[in-house]
Amino acid sequence: MGGTGGGDGNVKLWSLDMKHLQTLSASDDGVLTMTRIDSLLYTGCVSGTINLWDLDTMQLIRSVRAHDADVLSLSGIGGFAFSGSALGHLKKWDLAYIRPTRMISS
Question: How high does pLDDT run on average in the chain?
Protein backbone atom coordinates (compact mmCIF):
# COMPACT_ATOMS: atom_id res chain seq x y z
CA MET A 1 0.00 0.00 0.00
CA GLY A 2 1.19 3.49 -0.84
CA GLY A 3 -0.04 6.93 0.09
CA THR A 4 -0.23 10.45 -1.28
CA GLY A 5 -0.94 13.67 0.59
CA GLY A 6 -2.39 16.88 -0.73
CA GLY A 7 -2.97 20.53 -0.05
CA ASP A 8 -6.58 19.76 0.82
CA GLY A 9 -5.49 17.79 3.91
CA ASN A 10 -6.51 14.43 2.49
CA VAL A 11 -4.32 11.35 2.48
CA LYS A 12 -5.18 8.88 -0.26
CA LEU A 13 -4.15 5.26 0.15
CA TRP A 14 -3.45 3.19 -2.96
CA SER A 15 -2.94 -0.48 -3.69
CA LEU A 16 0.21 -1.60 -5.47
CA ASP A 17 -1.79 -1.85 -8.70
CA MET A 18 -2.75 1.86 -8.28
CA LYS A 19 -6.35 1.39 -7.18
CA HIS A 20 -7.68 3.95 -4.72
CA LEU A 21 -8.40 2.18 -1.41
CA GLN A 22 -9.28 4.86 1.14
CA THR A 23 -9.16 8.58 1.84
CA LEU A 24 -8.14 9.76 5.30
CA SER A 25 -9.10 13.28 6.33
CA ALA A 26 -8.48 15.09 9.61
CA SER A 27 -8.64 18.73 8.49
CA ASP A 28 -7.95 20.99 5.52
CA ASP A 29 -4.33 21.29 6.73
CA GLY A 30 -2.07 20.43 3.77
CA VAL A 31 -0.08 17.20 4.05
CA LEU A 32 3.59 17.66 3.14
CA THR A 33 5.21 14.38 4.24
CA MET A 34 4.35 10.96 5.59
CA THR A 35 5.96 7.78 6.83
CA ARG A 36 4.66 4.38 7.80
CA ILE A 37 5.96 2.69 10.94
CA ASP A 38 4.43 -0.74 11.50
CA SER A 39 0.63 -0.32 11.28
CA LEU A 40 0.73 3.43 11.89
CA LEU A 41 0.88 6.22 9.33
CA TYR A 42 2.40 9.53 10.43
CA THR A 43 1.56 12.61 8.36
CA GLY A 44 3.29 15.98 8.64
CA CYS A 45 1.26 19.10 7.89
CA VAL A 46 1.71 22.77 7.04
CA SER A 47 0.54 23.88 10.49
CA GLY A 48 3.39 22.03 12.23
CA THR A 49 1.05 19.20 13.20
CA ILE A 50 1.78 15.48 12.99
CA ASN A 51 -1.25 13.20 12.68
CA LEU A 52 -1.08 9.51 13.64
CA TRP A 53 -3.36 7.12 11.76
CA ASP A 54 -4.09 3.48 12.58
CA LEU A 55 -3.95 1.69 9.22
CA ASP A 56 -5.85 -1.32 10.55
CA THR A 57 -8.93 0.75 11.47
CA MET A 58 -8.23 3.76 9.17
CA GLN A 59 -8.88 6.05 12.15
CA LEU A 60 -7.03 9.12 13.39
CA ILE A 61 -5.45 8.17 16.71
CA ARG A 62 -3.80 11.41 17.70
CA SER A 63 -2.85 14.84 16.47
CA VAL A 64 0.29 16.44 17.92
CA ARG A 65 1.47 20.03 17.56
CA ALA A 66 5.07 19.15 16.72
CA HIS A 67 6.64 22.31 15.29
CA ASP A 68 6.06 26.06 14.91
CA ALA A 69 6.35 25.74 11.13
CA ASP A 70 5.64 23.26 8.31
CA VAL A 71 6.62 19.64 8.98
CA LEU A 72 8.76 18.86 5.93
CA SER A 73 10.18 15.45 6.80
CA LEU A 74 9.30 12.35 8.82
CA SER A 75 11.14 9.08 9.33
CA GLY A 76 11.32 6.33 11.91
CA ILE A 77 13.67 3.65 13.19
CA GLY A 78 14.08 1.59 16.34
CA GLY A 79 11.13 2.87 18.35
CA PHE A 80 11.79 6.51 17.49
CA ALA A 81 10.45 8.93 14.89
CA PHE A 82 12.19 12.04 13.60
CA SER A 83 10.50 15.16 12.27
CA GLY A 84 12.05 18.14 10.52
CA SER A 85 10.50 21.59 10.17
CA ALA A 86 10.77 24.49 7.74
CA LEU A 87 12.66 26.39 10.46
CA GLY A 88 15.46 23.81 10.37
CA HIS A 89 14.54 22.09 13.63
CA LEU A 90 14.82 18.33 14.04
CA LYS A 91 12.87 16.52 16.78
CA LYS A 92 13.34 12.96 17.99
CA TRP A 93 10.13 11.31 19.24
CA ASP A 94 9.78 8.33 21.56
CA LEU A 95 7.02 6.30 19.88
CA ALA A 96 6.08 4.58 23.14
CA TYR A 97 4.91 7.95 24.52
CA ILE A 98 4.58 10.14 21.39
CA ARG A 99 6.56 12.92 22.97
CA PRO A 100 9.74 14.67 21.85
CA THR A 101 12.94 13.49 23.53
CA ARG A 102 15.32 15.93 21.87
CA MET A 103 15.36 18.95 19.56
CA ILE A 104 18.25 20.16 17.39
CA SER A 105 18.26 23.55 15.66
CA SER A 106 20.29 24.34 12.56
Answer: 89
Q: What angle do CA 63, 34, 69 make, to 5 degrees?
A: 60
Tell me how far the alpha carbon of residue 50 is from its chain's centroid.
Answer: 5
SS3 label, residue 46 = coil
The CATH number of the domain where 89 resides is what?
2.40.128.630
So what's the pLDDT on residue 33?
A: 95
User: Using CA atoms, how far apart are residues 95 and 20, in angstroms rounded to an integer?
Assistant: 29
Query: What does the alpha-carbon distance between residue 41 and residue 38 come to, in Å, rounded to a whole number?
Result: 8
Alpha-carbon distance 44 to 52, whole Å? 9
Structural domain for 23, as ranges = 2-105
pLDDT, tens digit, 9 for 90 and up, residues 16-59: 999 999 899 878 889 999 999 888 899 999 999 999 999 999 99
